Amino acid sequence: HVQLAESGGGSVQAGGSLRLTCAASGDSDNTDCMAWFRQTPGREREEVAAITTDGKTRYTDSAKGRFTISRDNANNTLFLQMNNLKPDDTAMYYCAADGRWIGCPHVSANFAYWGQGTQVTVSS
């Protein structure tokens, strides 16, 4: 079992930066893939970025060039550096993890572990 705890959200103006952190505790074998998702009311949860233990990454198109996902495997911690934030980035951001697959799953339902979320609000 894995517990995930996000931090680092907040309110910023457009063009600003935030760094999200997700601390994982429990069975590290279940964190081979870790990812950031975001969700706004009335919309489906969207994957923002994902990373494997060996550093393979992927990003949604809107995050490419602005966001960087990274992880500290020794401390089982996930990060999301978000630069040049836009009002459309406003959402609840969730950390997710899973270790059952080769690579990262492509469907949010295939992530077994989720954090409680941290709110990011970007004003224009």
Walk me through this protein's architecture.
- The chain is mostly beta strands.
- Helix content is 0%, strand content 52%.
- It contains no helices and eleven strands.
- It has strands at residues 2-7, 10-13, 18-26, 33-39, 46-52, 57-59, 67-72, 77-82, 91-98, 113-114, 118-123.
- Strands 2, 4, 5, 6, 9, 10 and 11 form a seven-stranded mixed sheet that branches. A four-stranded antiparallel sheet has the order 1-3-8-7, with no helix packed on it.
- A hairpin with a 4-residue loop joins β5 and β6.
- The model has no long low-confidence stretch (mean pLDDT 96).
Portion of residues in helices?
Answer: under 10%
Q: What overall form do the CA principal axes indicate?
A: globular
How many H/I helical runs?
0
Give the integer mean of the pLDDT values.
Answer: 96
Q: Which stretches are poorly predicted, pLDDT < 50 over at least 5 residues? A: none
**Percentage beta strand:** over 45%
- What is the tally of beta strands? 11
**Main beta sheet strand tally, sense and closure:** 7 strands, mixed
User: Terminal Cα separation, in Å?
Assistant: 40 Å
Q: Please trace the helix and strand order, writing H or E for each element.
A: EEEEEEEEEEE
Structural class comes to mainly beta
Oligomer: single chain
The gyration radius over C-alpha positions equals: 13 Å
